[in-house]
């Protein structure tokens, strides 16, 4: 999905202010004096979560995204040119630059997931929701995005839904998960085929002592 750079679109609010100023101060204080720009990424995340909280209360719900006014506010707080913040926000797929659905589905379609039928899982979601990659359902509930590797390759194929990873998916399981989200019930995240973490489904095959110590066998 092509990342939006519509920073002057009509849906952009004229202004933005952080509600949790204590949190803003705490984030900036994490970094050495003169290195305030290190706070750009966590502040963008905070802005996205604040907009998402507002979205949950809206009649037609929407999820977290970062208005340009919020980027300008982050630039002011970090003492950098707004362009520095735009560069960061437009680069990373985790920052949404336009409104998204209440539940953002980020499908990994990089090689390991692709080889494990990521396309089948994605198509099942598209068919069930009646939308394609880059679209949002009319009720504002779901947006589908395609992203690069999310670091859960050993549990391929997988999808990230808001902050949750769903792994070892099948097309059928994907539809079940979506039905649950549609009822605002968050199903258990992690592997969906019964295995623990990224361990073989038949149990550990090495590091047996450590597995025993960890209580997994
Ligand atoms: S390839 Fe899909 S999580 Fe890495």
Can you walk through the features of this model?
This protein folds into 2 domains: 21-91, Orthogonal Bundle (Arc Repressor Mutant, subunit A); 103-191, Glutaredoxin. The chain is 38% helix and 10% strand. The protein has 8 helices and 5 strands; from the N terminus they run ααααβααβββαβα. Helix 2 runs antiparallel to helix 3 (68-78) and helix 6 packs parallel to helix 7. The N and C termini lie far apart (42 Å). The model has no long low-confidence stretch (mean pLDDT 94). The site of FE2/S2 (inorganic) cluster has 11 residues, from helix 5.
Topology:
Elements: H1 21-29, H2 40-57, H3 68-78, H4 82-91, E1 103-108, H5 111-115, H6 118-129, E2 142-147, E3 159-161, E4 164-167, H7 171-182, E5 190-191, H8 208-213
Parallel strand pairs: 1-2, 4-5
Antiparallel strand pairs: 1-3, 3-4
Bound molecules: FE2/S2 (inorganic) cluster.
Can I get a quick summary?
The protein has 217 residues and is α/β, with parallel strands linked by helices.
The fourth-level CATH homologous superfamily of the largest domain is Glutaredoxin
What would the CATH topology of the largest domain be? Glutaredoxin
Rg: 20 Å
Strand line-up of the largest beta sheet: 2-1-3-4-5
Ligand identities: FE2/S2 (inorganic) cluster
- Work out the count of structural domains: 2
Q: What's the end-to-end separation, in Å?
A: 42 Å
The percent range for helix content is 25-40%
Structural class designation: alpha/beta
Largest sheet: number of strands, sense, barrel closure: 5 strands, mixed
Determine the number of helices (DSSP H or I, runs of at least 4 residues). Answer: 8
Spatial shape: globular
- Arithmetic mean of pLDDT: 94
CATH architecture of the largest domain: 3-Layer(aba) Sandwich
Order of helices and strands: HHHHEHHEEEHEH
Report the portion of residues in β strands. 5-15%
The number of E-state strands comes to 5
Unreliable sequence segments? none
């Amino acid at each position: 999905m092509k990342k939006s750079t519509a920073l002057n679109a009509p849906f952009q609010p004229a202004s933005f202010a952080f509600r949790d100023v204590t949190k803003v101060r705490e984030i900036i204080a994490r970094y050495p004096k003169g290195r305030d720009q290190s706070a750009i990424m966590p502040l963008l995340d905070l802005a996205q979560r604040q907009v998402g909280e507002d979205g949950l209360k809206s009649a037609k719900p929407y999820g977290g995204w970062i208005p340009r006014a919020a980027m300008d506010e982050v630039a002011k707080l970090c003492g950098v040119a707004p362009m520095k913040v735009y560069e960061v926000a437009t680069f990373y797929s985790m920052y949404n630059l336009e409104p998204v659905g209440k539940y953002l589905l980020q499908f990994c379609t990089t090689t390991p997931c692709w080889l494990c039928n990521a396309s089948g899982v994605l198509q099942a979601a598209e068919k069930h929701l009646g939308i394609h990659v880059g679209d949002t359902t009319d009720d504002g509930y779901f947006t589908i995005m395609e992203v690069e590797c999310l670091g859960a390759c050993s549990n391929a194929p997988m999808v990230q839904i808001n902050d949750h990873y769903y792994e070892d998916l099948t097309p059928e399981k994907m539809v079940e998960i979506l039905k649950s989200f549609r009822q605002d019930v968050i199903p258990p995240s992690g592997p969906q085929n019964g295995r623990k973490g990224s361990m073989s489904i038949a149990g550990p095959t090495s590091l047996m002592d450590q597995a025993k110590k960890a209580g997994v066998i």
